[in-house]
Specification:
- The protein is α/β, with parallel strands linked by helices.
- It has one domain: Barstar-like (Barnase, Chain D, 2-Layer Sandwich).
- It is built from three helices and three strands, in the order βααβαβ.
- β2, α3 and β3 form a beta-alpha-beta unit.
- α2 runs parallel beside α3.
- The two termini are about 20 Å apart.
């Protein structure tokens, strides 16, 4: 099972969050660093079966809205994989 570890510990801004996403998911340099781009590449370029998200609690509360969006996109990918009969996809949030 391919697992991606997305460690958000200590991110200082939204650009940092998206750069960590780009690196963890091995997205190309041209990754747009926005939530639409995350969805597009998650759906088309990600072959992981599991994502482990760490360090969310280290982020400032102003990023809670962005974390909720990220969770919704990951949930959406679970549903999309099921509909397309792809490998199962899951994610967990670790402190």
């Amino acid at each position: 099972m391919k697992t991606i570890i997305l460690d958000l510990t200590g991110c200082k801004n939204l650009w940092d969050i998206h750069e960590r996403i780009r690196i963890a998911f091995d997205f190309p340099e041209w990754y747009g660093k926005n939530w639409s781009a995350f969805w597009d590449l998650l759906r088309s370029e990600c072959d992981a079966e599991k994502v482990i998200v760490r360090g969310e609690k280290t982020l400032d509360s102003e990023y809670e809205k962005h974390l909720q969006i990220m969770h919704k996109i990951l949930d959406r990918n679970i549903d999309w994989c099921k509909q397309c009969d792809f490998e199962q996809f899951s994610y967990v949030i670790e402190s």
